[in-house]
């Protein structure tokens, strides 16, 4: 149909979540017809992100600076630390502007099924941050899934020797729900009603 | 939330058809987490397309070569010429592999509402191609919309002095339907049953 370059672009776009072959073709046509207003800005944005992309060595966030925008923000409260499974969860909570503290990204959740063990997550890094002191409360903001809750309980046990309050998001999250898909109202409620881990 | 580079990338993706702010954010996270397997190939593909992008000076198709892949294909039948409104229609028909001839992209359809007049479309270019001879049949493959059909009738009148058979896609297309959204079966039927313009 089209040249190999256009095919390659269509295939690269089709692999993005939310885009299939058909919507990727439409996106490519959109880009081809709007070279200056659509293709060029996307290309520039990708180049810049690709040049600067890094994993935050403090919290595990993905950003173009290290420490990341969240860790570098002086207005945030160092005494509050919110632990999430994935970068997407950090972004969802941060977007809601409801949590004034810092974050820590585990990089997944414990899973017997998928063979994810504690050493596969950035748990030692988390414990290192807490051991250095200055944190009063650790909010375990795992997903309300079986694996998320297993991970939260595991972390609560690992952290019980530290002089920190350990809380988790209020249940009220829909069962099986994932943070990144929740509306802000639900997130706000869950965060306001956070409670100590029993 | 994120750095300005990541925001810019999110916004550039959110402007693509089929992606909104939320799916753009998910796409960006996907890209950031898969730098080598997803971000890099997309960046390379965009760079290559951007370097080579051109409008075919023969048919109006968008491609990375001029004449385009379709015009340059020696296996196609020069005696059959299919006129379409948009590049997306050319791609839809070409993808179906049902039409063995050449194409001509008008770049739109006549529209009193949108102020699109004959001189805004590549009609003179079309007439030039037909005037040079060698074309036996012109298939008017306009959309089954009021404006598409108005355009087809206008073209049929402009072409009636030429020794060519003028056909149009069989009706049977859903009313108001646009070529690019049709399944292959419907396209095949409409193409097989094409008939002379009365
Ligand atoms: Zn960070
Ligand atoms: Zn061409």
From TrEMBL, chains A, B:
Instruction: Give a yes or no for keyword DNA damage in this entry.
Output: yes
Q: Which UniProt keywords apply?
A: DNA damage, DNA recombination, DNA repair, Metal-binding, Zinc, Zinc-finger
Zn-finger regions (C4-type) at which positions? 56-71
Pfam entry (one): Toprim_4
Under InterPro entries, the record lists:
DNA_Rcmb_RecR, Rcmb_RecR, Rcmb_RecR_Znf, TOPRIM_dom, TOPRIM_RecR
As for family, the record states: Belongs to the RecR family.
In Swiss-Prot or TrEMBL terms, this protein is called Recombination protein RecR
What taxonomic classification does the UniProt entry list for its organism? Bacteria, Pseudomonadati, Pseudomonadota, Alphaproteobacteria, Sphingomonadales
């Amino acid at each position: 149909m089209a040249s190999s370059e256009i095919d390659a672009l269509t295939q690269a776009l089709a692999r993005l979540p939310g885009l299939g072959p058909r919507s990727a073709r439409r996106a490519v046509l959109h880009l081809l017809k709007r070279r200056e207003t659509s293709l060029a800005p996307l290309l520039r944005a990708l180049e810049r992100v690709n040049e600067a992309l890094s994993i935050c060595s403090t919290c595990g966030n993905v950003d173009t600076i290290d420490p990341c925008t969240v860790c570098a923000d002086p207005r945030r409260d160092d005494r509050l630390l919110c632990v999430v499974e994935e970068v997407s969860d950090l972004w969802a909570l941060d977007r809601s502007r409801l949590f004034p503290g810092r974050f820590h990204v585990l990089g997944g959740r414990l899973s017997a099924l998928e063979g994810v063990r504690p050493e596969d997550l950035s748990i030692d890094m988390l414990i290192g941050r807490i051991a250095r002191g200055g944190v009063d409360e650790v909010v375990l903001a795992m997903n309300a899934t079986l694996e998320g809750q297993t991970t939260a309980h595991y972390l609560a046990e690992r952290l019980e020797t530290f002089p920190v309050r350990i809380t988790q998001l209020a249940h009220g999250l829909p069962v099986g729900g994932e943070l990144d898909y929740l509306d802000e109202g639900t997130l706000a409620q869950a965060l306001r009603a956070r409670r100590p881990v029993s």
